[in-house]
């Protein structure tokens, strides 16, 4: 089944609405990727979801990437799916140095657990998230294992026994 | 008639000590309810509960027997597969994909290597594509059989599980014949599959797909006119079309809500555009509809496998790309070039170009996606697994709200999560 919309058309629609927001765009192995500025990310995603022509109904996946040595260390990656157009788009933006990022749970309900996972693995806090807890690891640990400076075998003593709760 | 309310007052006791003890006992057994309507309680279900399909833990807030709130807790099977992936080559990660959705190992193998091949831009021979389709569809049938069987078991029909396990056993035997392992298959390789299917294996697959619809009918006879099963599953766990899409439902769960969305048809990969099959869709959006979708999909998978067997031609099962694809064992021992390539591939891995890709495929549970960031090295810089069970489970608090406790197990069964995949 052919895509009903082209990469260039999507780019034009976004550029028309947000002239200064797009830093870069790229086509790699059939995927279309746009890099946007962090201050516009929430508005752009909201626009992509509610726009009638684009209508990205589903947030397939949210994740972060740790670049370790770069100036803006973390970047957030959003995989969007438009079922109407049968089209996938990837939106990437950097995370500010204070590691506070706007949430998208108000746009897609499915972002809830995905952002909790990112918080668990990378320690990026999502502003306005309704229930920001760790997804997999216990609440009392202080590590973020998918950061590049965390060793594969772990540090001794990271996983203590749970604290004893007195009656 | 001095004790009209059956309360023996301490006066009746001669011994004052006895009277004091009795008074204390009576005070202990009194139930004090401050607010007569305040009677919610929190029930901990799991992680070691047979009906939660693995180590899923639910905290249920109950009003009587009705669920008014639910908080799922994940992470009891978290093994850090994304961290492991960053520290090994693309080849070494194939066996780890078996442990994601451990009920559909072959489908995971196939879809992982497809993602890596998309990143590296590798095209594979036709016969390898047909074989991959056959094993992926067989594994879909196996996964759905467990899904159907455990859901029926959760609502009280144990026979179905035993019969579906018997059918699944035949698929495991086919896998044993094809790749030498029943459960942890690790069958696919980047650029093809590990070995060709011989005539005996093809005969086994043919026999299975010919006989399977008959067994399916036996299972249907047990359930589709069973009033207990239908009453238990109908109308519970309802979710609307829009909510299902927004919350991230994919696969059979989404098709049970009336959205005709199947990646095999919409964004075809392998040779799914060359075979003819239907996408079963039900519009009810309840637990029963999700069950029916799985039942129908097994028959469609049989149809796909039959067409694959007809269209498959003899030929190579590995691409001829020495820089990316592992050479054959006999060539390594006899030829110099192959030995060098084998050494380089095993030690340094394939070096796909710099960039990032996302590839989503139709796994039995839903959309299995891999987001791979490559820095041009032999190992991925970042490998994110978009697991269907994780995203499907997210809808659970919404689905179980207002249900009875006994419905919760049926709803979990209808979502069909596998915790190995949800917890990664």
Can you put this structure into words, describing what you see?
The complex is a heterodimer of chains A (167) and B (424). Chain A has three helices and seven strands. With 167 residues, chain A is of the alpha/beta class. In chain A, the strands form two sheets. Chain A has a five-stranded mixed sheet with strand order 1-2-5-4-3. In chain A, strands 6-7 form a two-stranded parallel ribbon. In chain A, a hairpin with a 2-residue loop joins strand 1 (22-28) and strand 2. Chain A is elongated. The model of chain A has no long low-confidence stretch (mean pLDDT 87). Chain B has 424 residues and is mostly helical. Chain B has two domains: 1-30, no CATH class; 80-423, Cytochrome-c3 Hydrogenase, chain B. In chain B, helix 12 packs parallel to helix 17. The longest helix of chain B is centred in the first third of the chain and has 29 residues, at 126-154. Chain B is elongated and about 105 Å long. The mean pLDDT of chain B is 86. Chain A binds chain B through residues 1, 26, 28-31, 33, 57-61, 63, 65-66, 77, 79, 83, 86, 88, 90, 108-110, 112-114, 121, 134-138, 145-146, 150, 152, and chain B through 74-75, 78, 80, 82-84, 87, 118-119, 121, 243, 245-248, 259, 261, 265-268, 355-358, 360, 367, 369, 371, 373, 381-382, 384, 386, 390-391, 394, 423-424.
Q: Could you give a quick summary of the protein structure above?
A:
The complex is a heterodimer of chains A (167) and B (424). Chain A is an alpha/beta fold and 167 residues long. Helix content of chain A is 20%, strand content 27%.
Features:
heterodimer; A: 167 residues; alpha/beta; Beta Polymerase, domain 2; five-stranded mixed sheet; two-stranded parallel sheet; 3 helices; 27% strand; elongated; B: 424 residues; mainly alpha; Cytochrome-c3 Hydrogenase, chain B; 2 domains; three-stranded antiparallel sheet; 8 strands; 49% helix
């Amino acid at each position: 089944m052919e895509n009903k919309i082209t990469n260039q058309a999507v780019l034009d629609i976004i550029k028309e609405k947000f002239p200064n927001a797009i830093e870069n765009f790229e086509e790699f192995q059939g995927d279309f990727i746009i890099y946007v500025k962090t201050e516009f990310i929430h508005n752009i995603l909201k626009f992509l979801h509610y726009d009638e022509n684009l209508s990205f109904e589903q947030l397939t996946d949210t994740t972060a990437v740790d670049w370790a040595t770069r100036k803006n260390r973390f970047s957030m990656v959003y995989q969007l799916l438009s079922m109407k157009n049968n089209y996938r788009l990837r939106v990437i933006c950097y995370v500010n140095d204070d590691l506070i990022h706007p949430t998208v749970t108000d746009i897609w309900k499915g972002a809830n657990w995905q952002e909790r996972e990112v918080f668990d693995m990378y320690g990026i806090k999502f502003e306005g998230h309704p229930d920001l807890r760790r997804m997999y690891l216990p609440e009392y640990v202080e590590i973020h294992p998918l950061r590049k400076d965390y060793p594969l075998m772990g540090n001794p003593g990271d996983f203590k026994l749970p604290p004893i709760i007195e009656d | 008639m001095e004790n009209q309310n059956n309360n023996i007052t301490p006066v009746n006791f001669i011994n004052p000590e006895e009277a004091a003890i009795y008074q204390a006992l009576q005070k202990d057994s009194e139930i004090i309810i401050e607010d007569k309507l305040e009677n919610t309680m929190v029930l901990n279900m799991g992680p070691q509960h047979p009906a939660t399909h693995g180590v899923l833990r639910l905290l249920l807030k109950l009003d009587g027997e009705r669920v008014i709130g639910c908080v799922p807790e994940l992470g009891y099977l978290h093994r850090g597969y994304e961290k492991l992936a960053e520290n090994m080559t693309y080849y070494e990660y194939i066996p780890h994909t078996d442990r994601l959705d451990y009920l559909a190992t072959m489908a995971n193998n196939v879809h992982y290597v497809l993602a890596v091949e998309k990143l590296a831009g590798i095209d594979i021979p036709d016969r390898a594509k047909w074989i991959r389709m056959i094993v992926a569809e067989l594994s879909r049938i196996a996964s759905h059989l467990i899904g159907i069987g455990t859901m029926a078991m959760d609502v009280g029909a144990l026979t179905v599980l035993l019969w579906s396990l018997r059918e699944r056993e035949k698929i495991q035997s086919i896998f044993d014949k094809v790749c030498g392992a029943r459960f942890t298959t690790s069958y696919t390789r980047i650029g093809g599959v590990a070995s060709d299917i011989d005539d005996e294996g093809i005969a086994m697959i043919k026999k299975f797909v010919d006989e399977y619809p008959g067994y399916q009918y036996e299972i249907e006879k047990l359930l589709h006119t069973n009033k207990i099963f239908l009453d238990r599953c109908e109308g519970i766990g309802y979710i609307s079309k829009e909510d299902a899409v927004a919350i991230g439902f994919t696969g059979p769960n989404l098709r049970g809500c009336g959205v005709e969305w199947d990646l095999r048809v919409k964004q075809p990969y392998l040779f799914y555009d060359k075979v003819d099959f239907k996408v079963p869709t039900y519009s009810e959006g309840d637990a029963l509809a999700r069950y029916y979708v799985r039942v129908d999909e097994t028959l469609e998978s049989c149809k796909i496998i039959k067409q694959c067997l007809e269209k498959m031609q003899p030929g190579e099962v590995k691409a001829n790309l020495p820089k990316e694809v592992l050479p054959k064992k006999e060539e390594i021992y006899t030829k110099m070039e192959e030995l060098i390539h084998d050494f380089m591939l095993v030690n340094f891995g394939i070096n796909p170009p710099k960039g990032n890709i996302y590839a989503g495929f139709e796994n039995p549970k839903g959309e299995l996606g891999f987001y791979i960031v490559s820095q041009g090295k032999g190992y991925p810089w970042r490998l994110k697994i978009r697991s269907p069970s994780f995203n499907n489970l997210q809808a659970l608090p919404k689905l179980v709200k207002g249900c009875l406790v006994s419905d919760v197990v049926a709803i979990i069964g209808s979502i069909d999560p596998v915790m190995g995949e949800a917890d990664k």
